[in-house]
Amino acid sequence: MAGTASVAGEVFVDALPYFDQGYDAAGVREAAAALVEEETRRYRPTKNYLSYLLTPDFSTFETEIMRNEFERLAARQPMDLLSMKRYELPAPSAGQKNDITAWQECVNNSMAQLEHQAVRIENLELMSQYGTNAWKVYNDNLAFMIEMAQKELQKFRKQIQDLNWQRKNDQLAGGAKLRELESNWVSLVSKNYEIERAIVQLENEITQLRQQQGDENKENIRQDF
What we know:
It is built from three helices and two strands. By secondary structure, the chain is mainly alpha-helical.
């Protein structure tokens, strides 16, 4: 579950989460969170990870109306209320009661309002006649888009699942190989220990035999004299 750092400062993760044990042990999660918190606090990126992307131009699709609205929001100004003046039919003021021009403007405004209402009624009639089919076509297109998006989502989910299965199989195979190598290493270390102990024992026996032979030689020489 450890990582080895390269010369460039990058970390090669050699953890096998599908094979390693002990993640649920008491204190492990807290210790990992503490390590992440410490590294996050002192980590400073050394390169821009988005350098391969083009610098986005957010003003490409802005219109004059959108630009003015963004400036209004940036200045924290209130939005202008919807003006209903064009729908009003005011009579001439008290000082213009006898002004034919003022009355003509009121009549023209009334005619414009009447024509506007007639156009609205015509649009409502057209919508009641053709709007249903248009909405059906729109809903069909929307349903087709949703179906295609769901298929794309299922494809990506399958790819993620296949990738996780591949990772799990690779990690289990690698973990089994590591366990076999570790077992072999322990066996070889044990054999080496046994060999070294046997060598030490043989050296002690050889030393004892030499000492015994030396004592016997000394005793034989003493007997000869």
